[in-house]
Amino acid sequence: MLNLNRSNFQAHPFHLVSPSPWPIYTSISLLTLTTSSVLSFHSFNNAEYFLTLALLTLILSMSLWFRDIISEGKYKHIFQPILSNNKLNTLNNKSNISNKLNMAKAISSEQIKYIKSNRNIKELNLNKDQLGHYLAGLLEGDGHISLPFLGNTILNRVLNPRIVFTSHINNIELYICIQSALSGIGRFQLVNNNNIIRYIIGDVKGITFFINAVHNKLRTPNNESFNQLIEFLNQKYNLTIPKSNLDMSDLFTNNWFAGFIEADGHFGVKIVDSKSKSCTRKRSISSNISLKFIIGQRLIDNKTSLSMLNIMEKISQTLLCNLAVYEAKNNKTLSVNVVAIDKLKYIVNYFNKYPLLGIKNMDFKDWERVYYMIISKEHLTEKGQSKIKSIQSNMNSKRVLFCEYI
Length: 406
Known about the structure:
The protein is an alpha+beta fold. It contains 13 helices and eleven strands. Helices cover 44% and strands 15% of the residues.
């Protein structure tokens, strides 16, 4: 950490003032002023000179203290989220940048150890390359990269970038495993009434370790944010990390797709009950059970203002299905929907080779059971339909695995 004041090092994005000498100087000045005033009232020799000196010292120390307070209040670029170059240049000229900070509480290392021991959490069965691809996909689905202002602050503050993963509390075991696989780097927070966890990597050593793990493995516009992170570290800490290139390999040849689906995929079972013709229904409806696999993404990535069209088109081509575009309030949404039973086999084969590692693996396993029941025509029997309804009733958002250890 060259040319940096270690005492001012800050590994979080919150704006806290630097240690200041002025409160103690002001206190000493007040004490001296009080003492010299009492001596002056009792006509001690030369007491008035000490009184004048103490008053001047008090005014000086308070002036310097207020100067720092005003500087802190006026400085607008203590921290800002990472943006594309064009957008960053635009916002740098504005003075109304606001930061929305969610209230969060830390999960202590003792709580993490307690969860490990009571849940019998196992290590991830992935080699270094597989882990890198998986983390790249997870970062591009559930992750976010934030950078502080690169220039020098008025008070010479050192702020560090952060890599943040956000997920449901049910996935805490996955992120504990990831932390173990990454040699213990990162910390955990709880937000949103303890329903959401954040896994945060916010120190230079940890971020550098993570960069080396996922380097050249990203596939979406987030690679631009990733390269801005690399550029930041190279400039701030005199490193020589090369830029990351987009991974253009086949989607089904590594764990990237599994990490991406862990964040943005959906395994659905659709059940339609039979309904007879009535006065309000012109046609009868026969019972039907079908499967669906859905991936949804905004057309324009909010973090980079770049299009997600290329990666979504590649996913749809790999899965041999169409890419749908839907109009949303502020952004168009891209959706890949696979429903044909003959095309779903590619998904089943992939996730058996490159398994999901979090809570979504349970949804996949239930979904896979229904898939084989449909293949064997078991879904056409009353017993099979009852079994599928029971399976569906405990999938996705209906699955409750609240961690009682936090």
